Amino acid sequence: MSDPDLEELRQQTQRTDRLAEPDARDDGTDDLLEDLVDALAAIDSGEQAKTFAARDESVTALLSTLDDRQHDLEAVGTALQGALGREIETDSLDRSEIVRLAVRLGLREAAPEYLDLLADASGEYARRNV
What we know:
Blueprint: H1 3-15, H2 29-45, H3 57-68, H4 70-83, H5 95-110, H6 112-128
């Protein structure tokens, strides 16, 4: 996980630190949170890859085309940054960043509780490893 990702998750955790709330989770999210913390540790130590792969011919075609068309890549990237409420930064935009932003936006829209758990796990991992 890159430093900007960790910083963003730390900021999210500072605003909504559900780990500090008194109610205990009884729906299995404590286990999921611990599994996420363990996964972050494995990634940080090199035991697990920092990357993931997805097979989708249409999306691959789009990303390959965007790679060759900087203006369009920036248009897609800045639209994703804007939808996520981020500062617009075209310097960091590449194919990988487009995928990362799109996955985060998809999670935020379709399953925000998992993105929240990831933020909590990242914050907890950071606290344990300060």
